[in-house]
Structures are given as C-alpha cells and as structure tokens.
Write the structure tokens for this entry.
Amino acid sequence: MKIFRKLLSVISAAALTVTAATAACVGANAVVIISDDNFEYTYSDNAWQLYSYIGSDTVVTLPDSYAGMPVNGVLSECFAQSGVTSVTIPDSYQFIGSYAFYNCGELKTVSFPSTLSSIGMGAFAQSGVESADLSETKLDTISSYTFQDCAALTEVELPASTKTIGINAFARSGLEEIVLPYGVTVLGDGCFTDSALTYAELPESLTTIGADAFRNDTALTELYIPDSVTSIGAYALYPMSVRGTLSVTYFEDSYADEYCYENFVTSTRSYQKIMGDSNLDGSVDINDATVIQRHCAGIEHLSQPGKATADADRDGKITVNDATTVQKHLAGYQVFL
C-alpha cells in the first residue's frame, strides 16, 4: 500500500505543483503531496494530513498547521520503522492511521490529544511505547492490534467513551493492569493474550469476551465476570482456569456460572445478586450503606461484585447517592427492582 502511495505521489507531483504559498487555495479533496524538511503532506477535506516522516529528529512535535491550514491526522505507516523516541500530538489531530508507528522500537512516549477520535489497526504494534494515557480522547474503539507486541507497555488509561477492545489489541504486551470503563461491551478475540496482566476489572456493561481473550495470562489469579456477559469464546481463560491458578468470581445463575460449570473451571466463587447488598452477605441492611460511604471516602475498598450490588441507583458508578438509596429502601421510601 505504501509503495502504491509513493507512485501516486510521483504522478501527483508531475501533474500538479503545489507550494506552501498556494496550498490554501487547493480544492477540498485534491490529490496533493508536498513536503517540508520533516514531513510529506497530503490534503483532504480542507485540512492537511501527515503522509510520511522524512526528518531526522528523534523527539518530534507534530505540526498543528501547514500553509495556513490545519493538520488533522497521521496517515497509515507515516512513522513506521522510524527511530523516533518521543512524539507530541497537538489538539488539532482527529485520527492516527493504521500502522502509523508500527515497529518504532525506540518510541517510548506519546502524548494523545483530546480531539483524537480514531486510532487505526496496528498503529503502535511492535513499538517501544511504555504507557498510553488515552483518558481524555474521544475514542470509542481500541482497534485490532493497536498495541500488539508492545512488551514495554505497562500502563494504559482508557476514555469513558470506549465501547470495544479489538482483536489482539494488547496481545503480548507488558500490560499489568487494566480497568475497563463502564460502557465497554466487547472484548475482541485474543485482546489480552500472552500479556503480563495481574489485574483486570471488567465493567457491568460487558456482554462479550472473545476467544483467547485472556489466554496464557498466567499472572492473572482473579477475575470477576459480571452477569451482563452473555458470551465467552473458546479458550478465553485457558489454561489458568482449568489448572486452578485463576479464581473466577460471578453471580449465581449468570452466564459465567454456566460457562465455568461446562468448561471445568476448578476455582470459583459465586454470590447471590441482591442490589444494595454491598458487603455480599445475602441481605440488605444499614451495614451496606456504611460500606458504601466508607468506599466513597476511600476508607474501604469494595470488591468488584460488591461494586455491582452497591450501585443501588443503577447509574454505573458508586457514589453517596447509592448509600442514600439503600437507606431509603430500609426506611420503606424506595424499593429496589
């Protein structure tokens, strides 16, 4: 694909010469490839995109404009196999193309802008990225293979807008912990395969765990599967679950309950799901309101199934309003559904 683009650039350059002085007058979707000392650019939809990095600096701040017009994205393979070590992406950028930073083994740090809404397939695969703070971005999908084979990647923060984790998105990464925000519904096949995970927090919005999702994550010793999950693919927890090195927690009569029984998962713990029962003792009383208050104050930590039942007002988060809801329930002013 990149070779095709290079040929296209030669054809375009022969057909149309565009300088920085005239770029602002180019049609909205003209085929244009021009360059400065660091980048080749293309022009589309009233903005420039970075086509290829031709500079020599290893610490790079991407341009937010060119010839008086904004730069809004990084195209596929733009930095692939380059020697960059640090990249700062400004707030005008909306997308990063597929394999844009593929095999950038020296790349350690990347700053992601709040305007970013798309990262393409394999964008950082086989790179040296050590952390990825995506929390302020607008991403709804972590695309397939995005951070595959990123052995140095140990920390990731996802935005609240995240809905899907793609196929092999973090496979064979150094990721040790992941907290998936409420709203995530799908974990793609192999998304965490062979990673270094020791802790994974799955939200109550999750419906699908793909095949091989946590396969060979041998450092993962505990996993809570919410009762919102209705599909778990083949070998999703293999081999830890059958060896007894992974303890799986779930609510009675949930899909996870059935899955663990049918797949010979040997170490399990189950609870009856009673909304408001934050301490999971099988009943709702004033102690549950106290536990919620202590959790909100940072004094006591709720377990993952405890968080599910503590969300008494069912808004997807644990706040003092949940304690108030429990108290109203006990006083007869509000009844849980």
